[in-house]
Design a protein that fits this description.
The structure is a single chain. The protein is α/β, with parallel strands linked by helices and about 400 residues long. The chain is built from 13 helices and 8 strands. Helix 2 packs across helix 3.
Amino acid sequence: MASQARPRRSAPQAPPARSVPAEETTAKHAAAGTAPAVRKKTEGRHEQLRSFYRDMLLVRRFEERAARAYTEALIGGYCHLNLGEEAAVVGLMAALRPSDYLFTTYREHGYALLRGIAPTRVMAELYGRVDGVSKGWGGSMHMFDVTHRLLGGYGIVGGQLPLATGAALAIDYRGGDEVVMCTLGDGTAAIGAFHESLNIAALWHLPIVFVIINNGLGMGTTVAKSSAEPDLYKRGAAYRMEAARVDGFDPVAVHEAAARAVTSAREGRPYLLEVVTERLRGHSVVDPAKYRSANEIERLKHEDPVQIFGAKLTADGVLNPDSIAAIEKEVVGIVTAAADFAANSPHPEVGTLFDYTYATPVANDSRRLPGQPLFEPAPFPATPAPAPAGASAAGASAAGASA
């Protein structure tokens, strides 16, 4: 990434095997026997790490299948993928309670999955089918599920910021203990709604965490070329808001940073968190990303967060080739089933297009279909029927006779 220099990442290698003296093995076994609580805690920690890896792989395989479906014309409209941002998505979502709220961007598929929405419903929404999260009318960018408290992906850059701030105000007004997490891209940190939302959140001590997913590119423009202060988390200082930056390639680090941010927000101290990550593909499925140099493309081949995290867990003894293969098989099965479900779900009826425009009925709401006029055109004046042939001549003769 041109805007942020950081050490080249590479997958860690497992240490070479060594022979262990018998007395050392015996001592370790004795220590383990006298500390079952420690062993149980370690096992729990390892299970969490395996879960993180499994969720990252689920997002990766799901997005890869979505990209394939787009090329097969099964997905229409715009389609933005979380490829490269899997560790960030997993760490952030793991820090939220089921009762907390999420507002996110149009790059939302992974967030929907990890909020607990069934992969079948997410894929069906991408396909524009009635069994989708938004009944097939939202598509890739506009998923909404009140049950899982995902209150939208938003196609307008920064459109979610004022709404998320308003939701936090509602929670505070009701005296609730929920938290709002609002994710946004690095380009959004330059718009007016960003500053207005942070300002009012800080003034009113609202329970909200603003998360900048900094993949270094606002479409094709680097952060360094679009922001006078490329360390985006520092913008929180203008509102005396606590802020931090975290490595978005490490789901554990993201989870810990997000947990601190959520705790702060739950106590009435809004927080700004910058997660530095990468986007492994173009801005959307159809973007060839020709603005990237050959060197950058080569570097990204070695900065795959899924492979890096998997290799680290293998080196630490948390995963092994068999467990990785088992997780891969499980995830591929889930994604394949989701794609099959979506393909067999019916398309929505045109007559339902306006059913969810408003949450409650609104008098005189417009239900015009594309191309229909605002008002029905007035009918043309009636045209008199033409007289039968010969009627004029007969009339003239009759008039002459009477004269």
